[in-house]
Amino acid sequence: MKKKWIIFSLVGLAIISWLPYQYKKQQTERAFAEYLLIRETGIYTLLGSKPITSVLLSYKQVNNSKPAEPTPIFGLQFTKSNHFKKELPDLWKHWKKRRPINSSHFSLVTIREKSSEDLCLVNKNLVRAALQEYYSKIAEHLGEDFNIDDVINTIDEPDSYFWTKIFKHHLACGIFYGYGIENSEKFKIDTSNAKFSNSIKDLLNARFKKNISLSDLPLPMFKSFSDPDPMIAKYKTERQQIQDKYQYANLRKLLTEALR
Fold first, then answer.
1. What are phi and psi of 245, to 5 degrees?
2. Which of 111, 226, 218 shows the shortest CA–CA distance to 168?
3. What is the full DSSP assignment across 208-260?
4. How far is the CA of 160 from the CAs of 105, 109, 152, in angstroms?
5. What confidence category does residue 236 fall into, taking pLDDT thresholds of 50, 70 and 90?
6. Residue 141: CB partners within 8 Å, gap ≥ 6?
7. pTM, whole model, 2 decimals?
8. DSSP state string for the chain
9. Residue 140: pLDDT band by 50, 70, 90 thresholds?
10. What does the pLDDT average to over 118-138?
11. For residue 214, which of 243, 190, 255 has the smallest C-alpha distance?
């Protein structure tokens, strides 16, 4: 009897010790999913029509040897009583370590430049569709042809043809960020008459509000050159559909299942 009691006690202690770890792990993953999907509008890539969403991980001046400072998660700091205060690079490191990405439809790719490091959420099906629709325009701007299948098959690699050649061009970049072909073409010509797709109020709310939900979801931010802009109208429709269907969804599980 005494032996059974000891065993039950040890099991109980193990469970008690395990629960806080699991809670903290889930909080960390929830914070990452909320930041990526809501604050940075990545949910339009996960559930909508936006091929790629990019999030700034770090930035430094080109001629500055000082290490880049991580981008803080505005409004996402938990109270001291929760002992939880993370920055985005740490959240991403935690996610990457515990959540292997094996999806054939989605990917998270880290792209490093001289002055910055970005994390890109990629919807491969939407990227393929955009490449097929705008192949002639992109190939013309690049000055060379390319194989779409080869591009998609290597898109998980930061040094692949997609990231080093196609994505470097402003037209292709605008298309894959979901700005629309008209806005992408006009951006390099003249931005004096352009307006932003989002209000500053919505953008600041998404960045600084502490407890955030899909009801706070802003539109993707880009320069718009037409009024009305069909891209803005499309994203407003998508936002409403996402909010209606996923308002009470677990974003951590949603992202985990998509990347699995």
1. -90, -30
2. 111
3. H-SS--GGGPPPPP-EE-SSS-HHHHHHHHHHHHHHHHHTT--HHHHHHHHH-
4. 17, 11, 10
5. very high
6. 169, 171, 172
7. 0.80
8. -HHHHHHHHHHHHHHHHHHHHHHHHHHHHHHHHHIIIIIT-THHHHHSS-SEEEEEEEE--TT--SPPEEPP-TT-PPPGGGT----HHHHHHHHHHHS----SSEEEEEEE-SSEEEEEEEEHHHHHHHHHHSHHHHHHHHTS---HHHHHHTTTSTTSHIIIIITTSHHHHHHHTT--HHHHHHHTT--TT-EESS-HHHHHHHHH-SS--GGGPPPPP-EE-SSS-HHHHHHHHHHHHHHHHHTT--HHHHHHHHH-
9. very high
10. 96
11. 243
Q: Which amino acid does the sequence have at 260?
A: R
For residues 142 and 122, what is the distance between their CA atoms, to the nearest angstrom? 21
Which residues pair with residue 112 across a beta bridge? 117
- For residue 214, what are its two tokens? 């899909």
251 pLDDT exceeds 80? yes
Tokens describing residue 100: 């292997």
Instruction: Read off the tokens for 154.
Output: 């290597």
